[in-house]
Amino acid sequence: MARVLVVDDEALIAMMLSDLLAEYGHETVGPAHSEGQALELVASTPIDAAILDVTLGDHDCFAVAEALGQRGIPFAFATGHGAQAMPDAFRARVTVSKPFDFEVVRRLIDDLVSPAA
Amino acid sequence: MTGSRAPVDLLVIDATADRHDGYRGLLGSFVRKVVTVAPGDAARQQLLSGAFAAVIVHLDDDAADVLADIADVDEASGPPVVVVSAQMPDLRAFGAHGRVTEFVPSAHATELLPPKVSCLVELAKVKGELDEERRTSDALRRRMGEQIHRGKNLLAILQSVARRTMHEGRAMSDAREALMGRLGTLARAYQLVTASNGAGTDIADVVEAELAHVMDRVTVSGPPVRLSGSVVQTFALAIHELAANASKHGALLSPKGAVAVGWTFFEYGTDRYLEVAWSERGGTTPKAPVEFGFGLTLVSSFAGAHAQTPNLLFEGEGFACRMRLSQDVLVPG
Q: Structural domains in chain B?
């Protein structure tokens, strides 16, 4: 069982990711609905992996991504925009698009929490 | 350039003030306005304003002032410069000084200048129209991108609602009814957002749309507040779920029960948010469920970062909850 941070400003989508994580035997950290909440959780809570919505209200999630990167925590992005909209620094990261293909999300979570990732 | 019209003003730089009236008379019929100015700071300022379709420069013997004035005219994007002088000037001297398009001998300026100017003005108009078209298509492309994003988001929300509704381990007929209710709410919310045309949706409209079927048992109060499109669907769904719960297990189950919905602004330090309170009364003492269903999970997501008090209360004569909407989901004004 891994502890996976979910960051999405859309409560319903965060809820769905939490449900999926529970279904696959993992625990949700959060969900955080804003950049501030997410940064607080990253600083204060043990986290094994994270799934980040790219747009968070008026903000984006890249500060959260950086904080995770500094701690060596694996993460992936979820976005309704195309992967080409990503800044260069994060283009190599895995991106799943919304609406979700649940099979893709399942494999993504497997990859994120497996020690090889 | 901010207006939608092409810039069709002319600038004449001429050291001899006596000729200014003549220029205005000669060229006034081609353009909205002919601005005449002596070389120097005033001329440079006018040039920098960028509002001219063309610049006429009248060179007397001493060309140095004027050369300095037009030095800043951008060769590629600045207005075309027409030089009027007694004889062909040394155009190499202009090479480093912006964009000289034409030379007109001053002896023939009266015949030659008007047709040249009229051509340049036409060109400027076309260029302005092209710029305008490009701005419009950029704006359209951006709006289309937003629309596509919103569509994808809505599909993801539908996935979430459908998964949750079909997962609650109840009979198919129940699940069907719950799903149709939730989809109806999303459709109404989408309608309200679309109708607002990006100007925000009045929170009272959202609440009243969701409580229309029980409005005789509900009081709604609060200042006018507009919600941004991103939150309307989730908020509408939360209200829908609260009403459904109240009808199934809460105050609306008993004939005397009623619900009050109100909202007000709150401040915690530098954070300002809208607090929406839902309180039921006249029902039986509520019992907290062992596990939160879809509705209460959704309501809890509005707890806010600074919840000092529990935002769900199962006590007294009815269930009560508070939802906090942060400033960034409200439309200012």
A: 9-135 (3.40.50.2300), 168-331 (3.30.565.10)
